[in-house]
NUDIX hydrolase
Amino acid sequence: MVTVTDEEERAARRQIGALPFQRGPDGAISVLLVTSRESRRWVIPKGWPMKGRKPYEAAAREAYEEAGLVGQIGKRPLGLYLYEKRLKNRDSVLCQVKVFPLEVRKQLTRWPEQDQRELRWFSPAEAAEAVNEPGLAAIIRAALKSGKAVKEARNARKASPRGE
């Protein structure tokens, strides 16, 4: 667990992430997690903000690059969580991730990082257990239990001029 002071939290490097989910034919929600490249732990697709893209657009781009996902991204974050990112030189940096819901419409057969990560669909409870970050586990539990992720993604679809 990451324990930080308020000052450390304010100094944390900002990242964006997507919480990919889909509803099955029976109405049950599944969550997709990917492995990180370095530590191979289960995480959501995430990365650094992208110049010229809104945070939710960058989160959708990360989901495409890391997992080949295409869908409806919510424009309002579900929440934030902290984690320590291990850098290639073995140092670590505290990161604060803003998480956006992504209702997955399809998964492509080819995508940029497909040979670098594993992917797996989980039930929300299994996904919350699989991740190491307590803040991310709490977001998964709260967003999918309350239906907030589904509502945010649907609200974004309604606001989109073409319903995308």
